[in-house]
Amino acid sequence: MLQNLTPTVRTLLLINVGLYLIKGFGFPQELLSLHYFGASDFRFFQVVSYMFVHASFMHLLGNMFGLYMFGSLLERIWGAQRFLFFYFFCGIGAGLLYMGIQHFIDFAEIRRATELVLSNPNSDNLIDYAQHYGVISAPGGQININWVISNYEALINMGALGGASGAIFGIIMAFGYLFPNSEMFLFPFPIPIKAKYFVTFYGLYELYAGIQQSQGDNVAHFAHIGGMIFAVVLLKVWKTHRNNFY
C-alpha cells in the first residue's frame, strides 16, 4: 500500500504513526500539543508540532485515512513542495483560528471573572469564584489570590490541541473544490455522493457541532473549519480554476 503513495504523503504518514507509537516511552506529547497562547505552557513551535501528536488510535486512524485517500492525488497535481506548503498552511491556520476562538469565546468569561476577583478579592468574591470556576484544590483550603492565579492557569492550560485534523480537513476541502463532481461514499450509506455535497455537509456539520459544543464533546470542530477556510483562501490565492470537472 505504501508504495502507491507519493513521497511527501508517505513521509507524513510515517512521522505521525511513529510519534504515536513512541508516545508511551516518554515522548513529550503535552509539550508538543498546542496550548492557548496566554498559557504558561504555550510555545511558538506548537503551532506546527501539534499537527503530529494524536491522543488516541482512532484519532490517528481517521486523520491518516484522510491523508491516504486524498493527499497523494493533490501531491501529484501540485508537486511535493506546493502540497507540503498547503498542508502546513491549513494546519497552522486551523491552530490559529482555534486559539482565536479560545481567546474571544471559550476563555473570555473566565478571563473577565478572574480579573474581577483579582481587582476586588474580598471573601464573598473569592468564594463565588471558587464555586463557579474552581478546578484545582486550594492548599489548606485557603482560597486566596495565589490560588485564583493558579486556578486560572490550570483552566487555560486545559484542552490543548493535538492532531493533523486541520490539515486533513484542508485537504478534503481542496479535493471537493478541485473535483466537485467526483463521486464518493459516505459511510455507512451505500449511496454515492458528489464531493461538493460531501464537503458541504461535512463543513456544515462541523459548524453546527462547534456552535452547539455538547457536553463531553472534546473534538476541536473550529480547528476543522479553520483548515477548510484556510484551504479555500490559499486556493483562491493560487488562482485555482474550477473549469475542469472530473
Instruction: Domain count, please report it.
Output: 2
CATH architecture annotation of the largest domain:
Up-down Bundle
User: In the CATH scheme, what's the topology name of the largest domain?
Assistant: Rhomboid-like fold
Total strands: 2
Q: What's the end-to-end separation, in Å?
A: 24 Å
Q: Assign a percent range to the helix content.
A: 55-70%
Mean pLDDT: 88
- Give helix and strand order, one letter per element, not per position: HHHHHHHHHEEHH
Biggest sheet statistics: 2 strands, antiparallel
CATH class of the largest domain: Mainly Alpha
Report strand order across the widest sheet. Answer: 1-2
Low-confidence segments, ≥5 residues, pLDDT <50?
A: none
Outline: elongated
Main structural class: mainly alpha
Q: Give the percentage of residues in beta strands.
A: under 5%
Radius of gyration: 21 Å
Task: Tell me the number of helical segments per DSSP (H or I, 4 or more residues long).
Answer: 11
CATH superfamily caption of the largest domain: Rhomboid-like
Family: Belongs to the peptidase S54 family.
Protein name: Rhomboid family intramembrane serine protease
Enzyme class: hydrolase
GO molecular function, one term: peptidase activity
